[in-house]
Amino acid sequence: TSADGKDVKLENATAGALDSLGLTSGTTKAKLVADTSISVNGVEVKFSKGSDMSDIAEAINSSSTGVTASVNAETGTLEFRADEDITIADGSNGTGLAALGLAASTTKAVTQETSVSSLSILDSASAQQAIQALDGAMQQVDSQRASLGAVQNRFDSTVSNLNSISENSTAARSRVQDA
User: Fold this and answer.
1) Most CB within 10 Å of its CB: which of 42, 45, 66, 76?
2) What pLDDT is stored for residue 13 in this prediction?
3) Would you call 105 exposed, middle or buried from its count of C-beta atoms within 10 A (0-12, 13-18, 19+)?
4) Distance between CA atoms of 31 and 89, rounded to whole angstroms?
5) DSSP code of residue 84
6) 3-state class (DSSP) for residue 87
7) Beta bridge partners of 69
8) Mean pLDDT of 118-131
9) What is the pLDDT at residue 101?
10) Max alpha carbon distance in the chain (Å)?
11) Can you list the pairs that 26-30 forms with residues at least 24 positions away whose Cβ atoms lie under 8 Å?
């Protein structure tokens, strides 16, 4: 597709011209012409020569970046989703951003209120949002459980200390009375 989202049709192009674009006869998707990589939230994600947008999204999703990538079916563009800020930079070879048509940047996270009752799984995009919403909810529950567990541990320790103090005080009182 072109920059404005229109389909591009190649006719009468030589194999050499198509090859330099990473395309073959009958191909409608652009592909990477060389191995490259980018850094997403500090994690290097590598892409192989011949990767298309779907392959790139899959590579990002299989890395532990905290970012979910998908390809917009209508525009063919790569979309990123995350619960926190997304930082994108060049990978180790320094050509990944240019190869993908991206610029180094940090995108601030935007909170999207989602309830379980409003989730839909009718198409892949909404199913992905449902997974992200449920994942976010589980992370919040885990965080709250961890906080409550830490508080409970402190209370248990305090109760043990108070029991020990009480026992020691009782023993001391008994010795004083015996003397």
Assistant:
1) 45
2) 44
3) exposed
4) 20
5) S
6) strand
7) 80
8) 81
9) 66
10) 112
11) 29/53, 29/76
